[in-house]
Amino acid sequence: MSPTSPSASARYWLLKAEPDTRIVKGKDVKFSVDDFERVKTSPWEGVRNYEARNLMREMKEGDKALFYHSNCKVPGIAAFAQVSKEAYPDYTAWDSSHPYFDPVSQSRSSSLIQKSELTFPSSISQKSDSEDPKWFMVDLTFTSRAPHFVPLALLRKIADLAPSQGIPEEVGYLGEAGVASIKNMDLVTRGRLSVQRVEEGAWKAINELASRGGWEEMDLRPGKKLEKAKDGEPKAKSSLKEKAKPKPRKKASETKEDNSMSNDTKTRVDGDKEKPLGKATDEKRKVPAKRKREAKAEPDSEVANERDGLRRSTRARK
C-alpha cells in the first residue's frame, strides 16, 4: 500500500503552513514543503485556535494528512504526511522568545514538562499546571510530495461547477463522486481554519488530482466559468460582459448626403431655444412674405419640405 493510499482505520486531515518568509520576534516562521521534506518529522506547534486545537487532539497515530501551503501567492496542497505522534502539550506557548508565545499560558507547571517527556529551552517559565494545559500539538511525518501541486484555485473552480455544466474533460477522471466530495471540503466552504477534517472521498479525489494532473490548460481565474459546449465538452466562458457590436458603416453616398445636410443645419443653443445658423438661415431670410403665406397654404411646397427637414435634423441632434 502506498503512503498516500487510504486504509480502513485511518482518518484524514489537512494542516496548513506558510511557505514564504515571515519574521516574527526576529525568527522566520516559514515552513515550506522543502523544509518539511528535509526535516522529515516536525511538531505542529503554534496552533492558537481552539477548534483547530480540538481537531489535533482527535488525531491518532497513522492518520493521513494533506500538507497545505497557506498565506502565499499560490496556495494549495503540496505534499502528503501522516500523524506520527498524538497530541501533547505545546510547550512553545510558554516560551517568551518563541513567535507563538501565549502569555496567558505562562502560568503552567514544570511537572507538565516531566509528563510530556520533553526537553524545553531554559527560557520557558516553570510556573504551570500539568493538569490543565491549554494548547496541544502533534508530530507529522513527511511521506511524499504531490507530483502535481493542487492549487486552491482549481478546487474552487471544481466546487463552483453547476450540475448543468458537466465535468471538464481535463479532470473528468474525478467523476461525479469526486466532484461532490471536493464541493463539501472545509477548504472551499470554510477556508481559513488551519487544521481541517478531510473526508475519505475528498482524500481520494485530491490523490487523483495530485497524481494525474491534466488541468494545466484550464483557465482558473475567478472571473471565468466553465460551460458545456454543444459537443458536450466544457469550454471557458468569461464573466465579463461582451462588447457591444460595432454599428455598420454607412455607404459613401449616404455619408455624403448626411454631411451636406449637417452643414446646412448646424445649430446653437441659447437658453432653452435652438436657433438655426448658416446657409439654411440665409435662404430662409430671403423668402418673401408672399412666399411664406403661400407656404402655409401649400404644405407640400419646397419651402415646407425644407422647414420639415430642418426640424427633423434639429430634433435628431438634441
Give a short summary of the structure:
With 318 residues, the protein is an alpha+beta fold. It has eleven helices and twelve strands. Helix 5 packs across helix 7.
Q: Key terms for this structure?
A:
single chain; 318 residues; alpha+beta; two-stranded antiparallel sheet; 11 helices; 12 strands; disordered C terminus
SSE blueprint and pairings:
Layout: E1 12-17, E2 23-24, E3 27-28, H1 33-39, E4 41-43, H2 50-58, E5 64-69, E6 76-89, H3 111-116, E7 136-151, H4 152-159, H5 175-183, H6 186-189, E8 195-198, H7 200-212, E9 224-228, E10 234-238, H8 252-264, E11 267-270, E12 273-276, H9 279-286, H10 289-297, H11 302-316
Parallel strand pairs: 1-5
Antiparallel strand pairs: 1-8, 2-3, 4-7, 5-6, 6-7, 9-10, 11-12
Helix pairs in contact: 4-5, 5-7
Give a written overview of the molecule.
The protein has 318 residues and is α+β, with helices and mostly antiparallel strands. The protein is built from eleven helices and twelve strands. The strands form four sheets. Strands 4-7-6-5-1-8 form a six-stranded mixed β-sheet, sandwiched between helices. A two-stranded antiparallel sheet has the order 2-3. The chain has a two-stranded antiparallel sheet with strand order 9-10. Helix 4 (152-159) crosses helix 5 and helix 5 packs across helix 7 (200-212). The longest helix has 15 residues, at 302-316.
